Amino acid sequence: MSRLLIASPHRYPDLARLWHRFVTRELVPAFERLHLEVDVNIFCDANADQFQPNLFPGVRFSCAGPGARDFMEFYDATLLAPSDFLFFLDADTFLLDGDWACSYLESFNDRGVAAVSFVPRKTNPAIFALLCRTEIYRALPAPALACRYEFPEIWPHGVNLQPGDFAARELNKDGKRIINIAGDESSRRIANFRGTTGVRSSREHTTQAAGEQAFLQSVAHYPAYLVAAYDNVLLGGLYESLYHEPFAPDPAGVPLGGSLTLADLRQALAQVRGTKQFESLRERFRQSAYNIQRMATLEGVALSIPSVMPNS
Amino acid sequence: MCHEHVNADQGQDEQSVLVLLPGEWHFEKRFGPNTVSRGAVLFECEWDGGRFEAGLFISGMFRSGQFVGGIFLGGIFWGGTWLSGTWEGGFDRRGIYHSRGDIPPAI
User: Fold this and answer.
1) ipTM of this predicted complex?
2) Do B101 and A210 touch (CB under 8 A)?
3) Which residues in chain A have their CB less than 8 angstroms from residue B54's CB?
4) What is the Cα–Cα distance from B2 to B33, expressed in whole angstroms?
5) Chain B, nearest residue to A142 by Cα
């Protein structure tokens, strides 16, 4: 029996709970129907004491430590764990159709196929949802999956290879292929959010190092945080309707206070200037709202999406 | 931001030091040798010769100077001296990633 390891680094147990809910509903049973032995591993990149194993049945937890000091080392360390196939699935990526994902397993009958990338970055394969044949990745020079910064001498114009990009390039040199699912097909089957952990960890780091005001300034200047904060509002709505607990609370327990509260998000959006940027945000928010509604439908939950744009 | 006039060394002329304070957020700026960060956020900035005592240095180029305290995250530690602080992850001058808790290799 082939072994599949589904692995994901997490920093926040509330998001991990949503992730686990969809993994155990969609992915695990679908792969088990194909007679794979499935193991699910959550790597606690931080806040390990806040993860309650009883809320995550069927999950094996690992924590940051020697050999896997952070999520970046975790990727490569995981290649060494027992598995024939390895499915890296980001904390804020939700597969809505396990059978669809499983249908790509037969691609590996071609020995030249190293992986299937289910969510592209722009148009390229990415690690967001990557099903790999483990032995091919193990054969790459280590660290195969960690990010790199090429040509640092010409910073900021060097090349910032994201996790998995170096491996993809090496595989290509070896004549191996990554099947790259295009964005259209991917978005029909996957609800993908981006940076929802990043904005929360950024708030933690910034507040710790420079105070809360500095974080709020950074949000106003960095549109990716606005998108991620909006996504957390949506994920929070679903989470609270399922578990009746606040999502992304701050240390005082204020819902979304660890990301951006609805009021703070509205205030930050009111400061956005430029029609083009507004339209870009509006389109991204529309996609996220569509994603969360599909997740809510699967859960049988009715969600109302709060309006956040000025004059909307 | 504020400017302080200090005697950097006995016998030297008085010079102006730029002090970056908590609550400040800077983006794509370059800071030279007479700069001290005491709690600012520097996002995609270049640090060349000053003393980083506290704050958050994120996704920038630490070209030279002293890192004494604060958080380093996602930038390039090209040169300078790492004395203490929190390394949350970043690259050395070869572009190799070093994980959380590591310290930049000696130059």
Assistant:
1) 0.91
2) no
3) 209
4) 15
5) B96
